[in-house]
Amino acid sequence: xxxxxxxxxxxxxxxxxxxxxxxxxxxxxxxxxxxxDTEGRPLEGASVEILGKKLxxxxxxxxxxxxxxxxxxxYWLAVRRIGYVPIQLTMTLDPDSTRDLPIEMERMPTRLxxxxxxxxxxxxxxxxDFYWRSRSAFGKFLTRDDLAKTRAFDxxxxxxxxxxxxxxxxxxxxxxxxPSPFGGSRRFDQPFxxxxxxxxxxxxxxxxxCTPGISIDGAIPWPGASLLDxxxxxxxxxxxxxxxxWLPLQFGTSPVAxxxxxxxxxxx
Length: 268
Hints:
Layout: H1 2-18, E1 28-37, E2 47-51, E3 55-58, E4 64-71, E5 73-80, E6 87-93, E7 98-100, E8 103-105, H2 121-136, E9 140-142, H3 144-150, H4 155-161, H5 168-172, E10 213-216, E11 235-241, E12 262-267
Parallel strand pairs: 1-7, 1-8, 10-12
Antiparallel strand pairs: 1-4, 2-3, 2-5, 5-6, 9-11, 11-12
């Protein structure tokens, strides 16, 4: 009897040793929806793509589409169909969730003599930048979904939440480049010598008066832009970086992407 138990125990142990290891399933999400024209008719053959990932599907004869097994995260979605204005939008997918996206596409003008066919590689590249930075850079990333959840009354209200200690007055100013040895930011419409400075910082901008640089659609930020120039309805997504220690490399050479930080605005 004891020998029999020993044989069973040895067989059980051998089975555990040869069994494949259990791997944890990563939480995924699903995106689905119906694509229609402006008159409510379903559109068949529209291409739906998640930029930055190799996930593409076409709508069926009812205009329906579905993308499964998407890792949770922030994404750009592109919808295209010949004869209709392309659509690009952002979304935030929670783990084990299903996102329903009703999409309405507007027909393009049919003046064939004026039509020029161009590629959209640059568009894909720009939006892929947002996707990859949201997984590697040290910033705050908000899609259209995230902006709606903030219930902010304007863009400055959103940005101020992710730049601690920054005054609303500073965020309303136009970012400028101070070529003096102390660097910093100052108002775009002020004379040259009237920079924001505090005595304690020996000429550098104080934390509350530091105006961040602004990039539009991922371009290198240059002087003259203000958060007041854009309403929340104009914005599809934003990136917020607190200071130059957290800036992605492609923005590090800008004269206004300094220690006051950077806001990247992606327009709709």
